[in-house]
Every structure is written in structure tokens, then in C-alpha cells.
Specification:
Layout: H1 3-21, E1 33-39, H2 43-56, E2 61-67, H3 69-77, E3 84-86, H4 91-98, E4 103-113, E5 115-119, E6 128-131, H5 137-148, H6 152-155, E7 159-162, H7 165-173, E8 179-183, H8 184-190, E9 195-196, E10 205-211, H9 216-225, H10 228-236
Parallel strand pairs: 1-2, 1-3, 6-7, 6-8
Antiparallel strand pairs: 3-10, 4-10, 5-8, 5-9
């Protein structure tokens, strides 16, 4: 995808975040608008997916809200009016099912995430940005990789911690860090140089989605994520596909 088109869809994703704040959708009445809580690493990809979905299902609108998986899960537990939850891991989906706030039979793995390094090599970094390992799946994965590579003790006092992997990238993009470990998909969307962390060095991150209300619109939306068209788009954004694992 050309860089200009990537920028267009990234802007569309940011606009969708603003529009969600104005949404009047409720969990009891999804109507033809499906409110989607999406992990921050997936922001650019879901903008592409929304564009494709609208062509296939023009009768259904998506209202997208982006944040860290833990923050979104907390909002859901407090009754936030979302209809679908696209987490960056399995843990948060497990918790929502256990709490009785989700439709268990709609659970899917929609992508496998991967890590990438942007900027200088982490060991040479003055400031290394990662997402909070206690809140964000990509932050936890970054921490585990640094520990496996025996770099964690040396780098732990040079870390710049973001509340999400999106914020970790912003620290790097703004010059507040000279290196960052982020989602590979973010580097693809930003069209910047990156070093992919080998799948031999870290396992891909299973990203799961689940419906929070049971309506035709929510089921149509979550089924679309597993469609061949959606999976092609997801793969183009740097994710591994579940069927290829």
C-alpha cells in the first residue's frame, strides 16, 4: 500500500476515535451502528477494514474507539457502551467472558501480532520506549524479549513507559526516545524503517475479538474479521494470520 494511502487511513482512524465520543449507541440497542473497542496496535488496520466492510455492508456503521487493551477492558467492566472488543491478547477476553459481559461463542483469534524495533538498537539506546508491561500485551512481550536477550537489567533504568503500544511509538516519533519496541504493524503503517523481532526469539501475540452484545450487526461485524478479504488486509499490515500458525 502506498505511504500516502496509509496516512489517509491513519487519519481516518484518528477521526473515528473522535466520532466515537459522540456516539449515542448503547449496549442494549446496537441498531445499525456497531461500537468497537480496539487495541491501539490495530488502529491503522481497522481503518482499512472499516473501509472494506462499508462496501460489503453499507447498512452497518462502525464507531471505533482505540486504547490499550487493559484500559478498554476496564471501561467495559464499568459498563462502557461497546458492542465489540478487539483485544491485543487473550487474557482480557478471558476476564470479560468470566464476568458474563460477553457472548462466548463469538470469540475469535483475528490476528497474531509481532514485535519490531524502531530507531537504534535497544542496547545502544539512551531512552528505550515500550508499552507498560503490566497493562499492555505488547509491553509484556517486549519485556519478555528483553529478559530473554539478557538486556533487561541494563536497560530497565533507561525505559520510557507508555500506557499503550501506541503511546510507546509516540515517544519515539516525538524524539522522547531514540529507540522503541512496538507492534510491527505500527511500523508498517507509519512506513518507517524497522527491525522485526524474529518469531524464533518471541512468540507471536494472539489477538482475540469478542461480541459484547448479541445482534445481527455485531455478529456480521465479527464474522467479517475472519473473512478472506479481512484476513488479506490484516496480513498486509504485518500481522500473521491464525490459519498460518
Amino acid at each position: 500500500m502506498p505511504p500516502l494511502m496509509r496516512r489517509h487511513y491513519l487519519l481516518a482512524a484518528l477521526a473515528a476515535i473522535y466520532l466515537t465520543a459522540c456516539s449515542r449507541a448503547t449496549r442494549e440497542d446496537a441498531g445499525t451502528t456497531v461500537s468497537i473497542a480496539t487495541a491501539s496496535n490495530f488502529a491503522a488496520c481497522i481503518a482499512d477494514l472499516e473501509h472494506a466492510f462499508s462496501k460489503v455492508h453499507p447498512e452497518i456503521d462502525w464507531a471505533i474507539s482505540v486504547g490499550s487493551s487493559s484500559q478498554l477492558a476496564a471501561q467495559i467492566s464499568h459498563g462502557a457502551p461497546f458492542h465489540l472488543f478487539l483485544s491485543a491478547d487473550q487474557k482480557r477476553v478471558d476476564a470479560i467472558i468470566d464476568s458474563g459481559q460477553a457472548i462466548a461463542d463469538t470469540r475469535i483469534t483475528y490476528a497474531w501480532g509481532r514485535l519490531a524495533i524502531v530507531g537504534v538498537d535497544p542496547i545502544d539506546a539512551m531512552r528505550l520506549a515500550i508499552a507498560n508491561p503490566e497493562l499492555a500485551p505488547y509491553g509484556f512481550a517486549a519485556q519478555q524479549w528483553l529478559k530473554a536477550e539478557k538486556m533487561w537489567p541494563e536497560l530497565s533504568d533507561r525505559l520510557v513507559i507508555g500506557q499503550s503500544v501506541g503511546q510507546a511509538y509516540q515517544f519515539y516519533a516525538s524524539g522522547n526516545a531514540d529507540s522503541a519496541i512496538i507492534a510491527l504493524s505500527q511500523a508498517v503503517a507509519a512506513d518507517i524503517d524497522f527491525q522485526a523481532i524474529s518469531l524464533k526469539e518471541t512468540s507471536p501475540i494472539p489477538q482475540e475479538a469478542i461480541a459484547l452484545v448479541d445482534t445481527p450487526a455485531t455478529r456480521t461485524s465479527i464474522d467479517f474479521l475472519s473473512s478472506e478479504l479481512a484476513q488479506q488486509i490484516i496480513e498486509q499490515h504485518g500481522y500473521r494470520l491464525p490459519r498460518k500458525e
